[in-house]
Write a structure and sequence with these properties.
About 40% of the residues lie in helices and about 0% in strands. By secondary structure, it is an all-alpha fold. The chain has a two-stranded antiparallel sheet.
């Protein structure tokens, strides 16, 4: 009996040690670096793990730009057929940009990812139709959303990073409409997903905010019972979006918010205004440029509910507070900054 008890005690100790290792593996070990961003005592501090910085720098390296092509000479629309965008570029400029876009999006497939090699002008491949619209989307962002992207701007590489489909996209979630008990509609809760960093929050905070224009708030603006319509579910969706934004930019909540009054717009960091515009920019991109292409895409490129891959904060930021760590590729490809009115 004593031997049996000793055996189970030893086994329990091993299990406890293993559990502690698992727990520690989920944490980031010290030392960490912190930078104060607000008044002392407010808790407005950004915490950084210095051991991940090198990886982030590598992931956000900007590809070398090819030498500029001369603007002189015939225009692309005069030489090539079916040039519906970028036709005002010279043939040299047009060819340079096409080569760059190919390397940004389909470096393995090459030009044939979008074009029929037997007839480059035709639109038989859906990827060509989509790419044309995405170029217009990029021009629109750079021309009309400077409130978020400023003069740094975006290019195809900002999101794609050498992949046909950006690594950070989202689809509508086909969550169970009812829970297993009396709780009713789960709204995607308690189904841990990367979209909300494995939290128990609703795993699709994007549909109400980055497709729809639901109010993003936790606090009601007036007292109960008649004025406060900020439901618990709406609050949970808001938290889900905020958790996503924090993880997407690799920052704490205090990067944007004043800890003394999270809902207040007084004494906030300028990043909160940028974020406000960024949410509306993502909504504009999803509704005006991506969703209308639904019938163009084949079934294998759609989600379980038949929708397309859409953008959120992570699509561009990919773990850093400024996409590509603030480097601007737009200065090397100015044609992606014009054309949208």
């Amino acid at each position: 009996m004593l031997q049996s008890s000793t055996h189970w005690l030893a086994r329990g100790a091993k299990l406890a040690a293993l559990a502690s290792l698992v727990t520690l593996a989920a944490c980031e070990r010290p030392p960490m670096q912190s930078e104060q961003s607000g008044f002392r005592g407010t808790g407005m501090v950004q915490v950084v793990n210095p051991r991940t910085l090198e990886d982030k720098v590598a992931l956000n390296a900007v590809p070398m730009a090819t030498p500029q092509a001369p603007a002189e000479g015939p225009k692309a629309s005069q030489i090539y057929q079916n040039v519906q965008v970028l036709g005002d570029l010279s043939v040299g400029q047009f060819t340079r940009l096409m080569v760059a876009i190919t390397s940004w999006i389909a470096p393995q497939e090459g030009c044939n990812y979008c074009h029929n090699p037997a007839n480059l002008a035709e639109d038989s491949k859906y990827t060509k139709v989509v790419s044309r619209r995405m170029i217009e989307m990029t021009q629109n962002i750079n021309a009309n959303w400077k409130t978020h992207v400023a003069d740094t701007g975006v290019t195809c590489y900002t999101c794609h990073r050498g992949q046909a489909v950006p690594s950070q996209v989202w689809f509508k979630t086909d969550h169970e409409p009812k829970g297993a008990n009396f709780i009713g509609d789960k709204a995607g809760q308690n189904s841990p997903a990367a979209s909300v960093t494995l939290a128990s929050l609703p795993n699709d905070p994007f549909t109400p905010f980055l497709l729809g224009d639901h109010a993003i708030r936790v606090n009601g603006t007036t007292a109960l019972p008649t004025g406060n319509r900020s439901s618990i579910k709406q609050t949970e969706w808001t938290y889900g979006l905020m958790v996503h934004m924090s993880a997407s930019l690799g920052v704490n909540c205090t990067y944007c918010h004043n800890t003394r009054a999270f809902s207040s717009w007084e004494d906030v960091a300028p990043q909160r205004v940028k974020a406000w515009h960024g949410i509306r920019m993502a909504r504009d991109v999803n509704n005006q440029y991506i969703t209308p292409l639904t019938e163009v895409f084949p079934a294998n490129r759609k989600g379980v509910l038949g929708d397309l891959a859409k953008v959120n904060c992570a699509t561009c930021h990919q773990g850093v507070n400024k996409p590509l760590l603030g480097a601007s590729m737009l200065k090397d490809y100015p044609s992606l900054a014009s054309g949208a009115k």
